[in-house]
Amino acid sequence: MTQQPHTPIQPFFANSIPKSGTHLLRPLIEGIPSIKHQAFIYPGLIHQLDEHRKILSSMPANHFANGHLHYSPQYALLFKQLKMKQIFLYRDPRDIVVSYAYFFMKFKGKPYERYFSENNMNVRSRCLALINGFNNSYAHRSNIKQFYERFMGWLSEENIHLVSYESLVHSAESQRNELKKILRFLDIEKRPMKLDEIAKKMQANVDPAKSPTFRKGQAGNWQQVFDEEMKAQFKAVAGDLLIQLGYEKNHDW
């Protein structure tokens, strides 16, 4: 049913794979009139289930939570029990690799920055490490496929609206069209003229300068970074993942 003025909006959850546009999606959602942010929760470990249940079940109308929740049958059941809708934001894993290669260097002295710095890694070397994973006495990182697959189960769950990062940054029109789909999915609005009006308010609420992790906000940046060896190593580790996600039709890219 289309939400009329003052009709309560059911609380919902905006999930995302890290480095997939979390700090873009949140202000877009907060641009919906009367919607307020409640909490950020992650990563969905089983011992956190009760804590997260309390947070999600106590959210009042017109509020949403967001986070990076790994998929598990227990968390999937939680959303079913709460009858809570979920928006799930994902991104080309090649661009996630590049984004992390820059992101981790901001945190001087932290394990990943230390690992990259002590090994004199440039952007290319850092990307290769993130593609293949690494492990030493103070820094451990799964390869990109293992990292991504922790979230993949959400893609086949019910009552979830999938949103690609690329659809939000391709163009203002593409973003607006995606926002209208979100509004319909959440049963906030279905009237065409009102959809467009609310979507524009959502877009106007975004200020990239306020994002603590915003760097370029581009899709396909991996093409400026990956050379043939990097492509080959990515295909070996996660080529099938790209096909599964629909980013490539085969391994010929």
Report what the structure shows.
The chain has helices spanning 22-30, 49-57, 73-82, 93-103, 111-118, 123-132, 144-149, 165-169, 172-185, 192-204, 228-245; strands spanning 12-16, 36-41, 63-67, 86-90, 134-135, 140-141, 160-164. The chain is of the alpha/beta class. The strands form two sheets. The protein has a five-stranded parallel β-sheet, with helices on both faces. The chain has a two-stranded antiparallel ribbon with strand order 5-6. Strand 2 (36-41), helix 2 (49-57) and strand 3 (63-67) form a beta-alpha-beta unit. Helix 1 packs across helix 10.
SSE diagram, text form:
Layout: E1 12-16, H1 22-30, E2 36-41, H2 49-57, E3 63-67, H3 73-82, E4 86-90, H4 93-103, H5 111-118, H6 123-132, E5 134-135, E6 140-141, H7 144-149, E7 160-164, H8 165-169, H9 172-185, H10 192-204, H11 228-245
Parallel strand pairs: 1-3, 1-4, 2-3, 4-7
Antiparallel strand pairs: 5-6
Helix pairs in contact: 1-10, 2-3, 4-6, 6-11, 9-10
